[in-house]
Amino acid sequence: MSFLRAARAARIGQSGGLRILVAAFVVLAGFSLSCGNSGQSTATSNHDAYVTLPALGSVLLLHVNGTTGNIYTGGQTPQQEDFTPSGLAFLPSKNILYAINAFDATISIFNVAGDGTLTLGASPIPVGSSPNAVVIDPSGKYLLVTNNYSNGGDISVFSIDPSTGALSPVGSPVPANTNPTEILFTHSGQFVYVTNPEIGMVTGFSFSNGVLSLVPGTPVSSGQGGGALGLAVDGSDRFLYVTNPSAINLPPNESTIGNISGFNIDPTSGALTPILGSPFTSIVGSVGPTTITIDPSGTRVYAVAPGSSFSVWCFAINPANGQLVALTNSPFSVPAGGLFALFDPSGRFFYIGGPTGIQGYVYNPSTGALTTIVGAPFSIGTAPGKMVFSE
What we know:
CATH topology: Methylamine Dehydrogenase, Chain H
Helix content: under 10%
Radius of gyration: 19 Å
Number of domains: 1
Largest sheet: 6 strands, antiparallel
Oligomer: single chain
Number of helices: 1
CATH architecture: 7 Propeller
Number of strands: 34
CATH class: Mainly Beta
């Protein structure tokens, strides 16, 4: 598993009091368009995960059972006034968790013990105004943060000390157009993309030794008027997909709100050009998708909208041209939530963040179907921010 994919995952044990059952999510082999009943996967190891609780000013440890997908709550960091953690990034090589504090404009650094518990480390590191999302490059050497309001919107870059995990600023923050929000590295680490929801655009950068350079032709429009938000890149680094939650669709899909823009990624420059047929939308949906992810095989797209009706859109990626083809029975009319969507490290379970907790599904690798785990959704008492696995 690459560092980038590892940093997006979570480990799950069996301690704590709250049990959460989760959905197994495995990759579609080939270009099947079936979404039938879910099958059973083999057992895997347990994992730990972390979720931010912005309203409580803390970060919560979750233990996830790798066989059943059950989630149990572990320890919670002390609640701090003016600490509103949003984005998370995990550094496996040092067992360090970085949490972005949106209100105080800082990065908190937590040391992770063998049992997954968190201890606040060095003093918080200042970052730009209203930081939103954080990501670590695939090499594990750099950490990037989007700042919504600094200098009209920019990205802070930090080098990560290979011995301690300490952060040091690299140059000055880089302008990233209005309201940079979500941020994503390609698997190669060569390119970085951010969404600009207020202007409905996507800005791209090439990345080398901590230096960001604007990709030619960006920002590019994504779903005019749709408020570009979530980002995902396919397993080959050839295609970028962006959710446009409020986009208006043309007939015959005018009754569906929201869509997904698809872009070809130039392998040399990182320039973005629309995929033929983009934007792609669901056959039905009254609320547009906000978050998006791609299965561990890199061949399926899952876009998730808040609510319980037609809330999970599922598409197969045509490997020849990047076009999205809806799977049978998509959109799934199951409870979801638009705060985050991610797979566990084994690819067997699929987790979605909702208004008061986490929804969990078992993922069928041959059909792409999602089966709700008994007992889901699992309340954590408040709305989560972001979730990350520790491997």
